[in-house]
């Protein structure tokens, strides 16, 4: 595993005349917690689709977990995990069935799955709920379970899409501690969120406006260079004049 | 009569889930009141009772002195309600939606145009666009216009800012302040603690109970201990080591720093740094900080759990 987990150079995606992602260049280090922010319509989703091998770029270069995003998208998919607050788990399956299902998708052996299974139940404290339908679990448990399942196949990089919306502040912090732990273990964490206080938990944060990355630094440095009290202020300063904003 | 909303010991259960447990509070005329709590706290259930869509199991709720069960017909025309999921007709245009809502309440867009103008004006360039084709921030503005078009006395907004970006959220709160200045009483819910500062008063809600009601400043300051912010490059290790400290009261990650409270009254911060250093966290910096609303919320949650 190289020390650079994600690298892009002038990565661009056009849809007809519209440039959704406009020459973005950045590196994400192995084990880094990287926040990827932008207003709705700024191009975040398009950028992530390129990084996860779901969309091929119009021009520019990129590598994810050491694989080229133009030619090796299938290899990338095996080395990344993905969690979205909305779509990660099957509500009609039980906790056990969800773990087994994803284990099957990623081709884990019965033996490995068995040990992963115990590890997850321990970590998420779900032992008494293994046969409960996921739909009946509190949101906080679902999020922790979804994160653990995203790590099931030991990916090098995990993509989190608005991971902690709607939960209470204690559960939310338990979730961030799971992220810190994954990062300690060398997993690179790529987080997108609308909630700027979540950005404060990241090692570095990038802010996208109209297809371009307008700022990229640690939260402390961003606040210092914009003389702002919070990342939210920095974000609003940058995104307020956006052409493709959500306004 | 100064209270627009009066809720007294209201309870509501769904089968064996207690959604609301003897909730009581009042909202004064002209107030912007925030109900703050995570998913499952009971915010939507409470709003459905106030909007006469659900009947409480026990207790009493009144809007402008009228009972929500007895007087639901009188209450409905004076309420504006923006539910959590968008209430708009996706296959009607922007203009058709607002005219529809106006006609339901026996008024017209022209009659109350002044009230909705600051918001609706931003949508007028797109008035022929289908509501389903609007972006999240624009849908939210249209939903607010539709909830306002009959000039309600009380506006009830269920998580109006969930899922929209920071710029749209900020603009939305600016619009609510404008409406407040026109004398409309506003009751809004949000799962986001950082929005509390936008409100005159807030109620913190969790598991069907109100943990505290006060002004945002007073809530923030009511944390019971001296609070310290501790920073280190090794955040994960810092948290683990602090939790093992013999004087620890609470340890909570807060972005780039960790909020720490101690059982001692006036602990020597050098002691804490020495402890950290001997346990492998050598680069820690510590300083006294002001508590915020999340610190208080978490402390109240923990007190509630230890009583339970």
From TrEMBL, chain A:
GO molecular function (one): ATP binding
Record domain ABC transporter: where: 6-235
Keywords annotated in UniProt: ATP-binding, Nucleotide-binding
Pfam family, one: ABC_tran
Keyword ATP-binding recorded: yes
Annotated protein name in UniProt: ABC transporter ATP-binding protein
TrEMBL record, chain B:
Top-rank taxon, per record: Bacteria
Parts of the chain that traverse the membrane: none
SUPFAM superfamilies registered for this protein in UniProt: P-loop containing nucleoside triphosphate hydrolases (SSF52540)
InterPro entries attached to this UniProt entry: AAA+_ATPase, ABC_transporter-like_ATP-bd, ABC_transporter-like_CS, P-loop_NTPase
Entry-linked Pfam families: ABC_tran (PF00005)
Alphabetical keyword list: ATP-binding, Nucleotide-binding
Gene3D superfamilies in UniProt: P-loop containing nucleotide triphosphate hydrolases
An example Gene Ontology molecular-function term: ATP binding
Record domain ABC transporter: where: 5-232
Name of the protein in question: ABC transporter ATP-binding protein
Source organism: Rhodohalobacter sulfatireducens
């Amino acid at each position: 595993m190289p020390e650079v987990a994600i690298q892009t150079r002038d990565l661009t995606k056009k849809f007809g005349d519209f440039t959704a992602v406009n020459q973005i260049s950045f590196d994400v280090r192995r084990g880094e917690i990287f926040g990827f922010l932008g207003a709705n319509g700024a191009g975040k989703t398009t950028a992530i689709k390129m990084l996860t091998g779901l969309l091929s770029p119009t021009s520019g270069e990129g590598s994810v977990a050491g694989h080229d995003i133009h030619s090796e998208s299938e290899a990338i998919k095996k080395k990344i995990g993905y969690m979205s607050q909305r779509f990660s788990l099957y509500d009609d399956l039980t906790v056990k069935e969800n773990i087994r299902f994803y284990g099957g998708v990623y081709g884990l052996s019965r033996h490995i799955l068995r040990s992963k299974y115990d590890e997850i139940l321990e970590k998420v404290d779900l032992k008494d709920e293994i046969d409960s339908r996921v739909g009946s679990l509190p949101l906080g448990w679902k999020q922790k379970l979804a994160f653990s399942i995203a790590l099931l196949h030991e990916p090098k990089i995990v993509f989190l899409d608005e991971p902690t919306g709607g939960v209470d502040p204690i559960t939310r912090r338990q979730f961030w501690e799971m992220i810190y732990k994954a990062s300690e273990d060398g997993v690179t964490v790529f987080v997108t969120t609308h909630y700027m206080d979540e950005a404060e938990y990241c090692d570095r944060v990038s802010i996208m406006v109209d297809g371009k990355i307008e700022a990229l630094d640690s939260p402390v440095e961003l606040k210092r260079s914009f003389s702002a009290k919070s990342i939210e202020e920095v974000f609003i300063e940058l995104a307020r004049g956006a052409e493709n904003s959500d306004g | 009569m100064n209270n627009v909303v009066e809720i007294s010991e209201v309870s509501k259960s769904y089968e064996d889930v207690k959604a609301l447990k003897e909730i009581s509070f009042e909202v004064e005329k002209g107030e912007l009141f925030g109900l703050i709590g995570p998913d499952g706290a009971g915010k939507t259930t409470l709003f459905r009772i106030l909007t006469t869509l659900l009947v409480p199991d026990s207790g009493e709720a009144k809007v402008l002195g009228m009972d929500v069960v007895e007087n639901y017909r009188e209450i409905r025309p004076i309420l504006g309600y923006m539910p959590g999921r968008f209430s708009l007709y996706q296959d009607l245009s922007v203009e058709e939606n607002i005219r529809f809502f106006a006609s339901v309440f026996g008024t017209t867009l022209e009659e109350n145009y002044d009230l909705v103008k600051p918001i609706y004006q931003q949508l007028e360039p797109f008035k022929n666009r289908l509501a389903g084709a609007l972006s999240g921030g624009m849908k939210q503005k249209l939903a607010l216009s539709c909830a306002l078009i009959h000039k309600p006395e009380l506006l009830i907004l269920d998580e109006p800012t969930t899922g929209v970006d920071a710029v749209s959220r900020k603009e939305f709160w600016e619009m609510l302040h404008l409406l407040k200045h026109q004398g409309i009483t506003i009751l809004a819910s949000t799962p986001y603690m950082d929005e509390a500062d936008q409100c005159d008063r807030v109620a913190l809600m969790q598991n069907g109970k109100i943990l505290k009601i006060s002004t945002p400043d007073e809530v923030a300051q009511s944390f019971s201990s001296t609070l310290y912010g501790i920073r280190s490059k090794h955040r994960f290790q810092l948290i683990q080591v602090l939790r093992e400290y013999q004087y620890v009261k609470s340890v909570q990650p807060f972005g780039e720093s960790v909020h720490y409270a101690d059982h001692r009254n006036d602990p020597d911060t050098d002691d804490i740094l020495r402890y950290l250093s001997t346990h492998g966290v050598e680069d820690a910096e510590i300083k006294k900080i002001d508590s915020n609303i999340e610190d208080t919320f978490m402390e109240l949650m923990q007190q509630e759990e230890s009583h339970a």
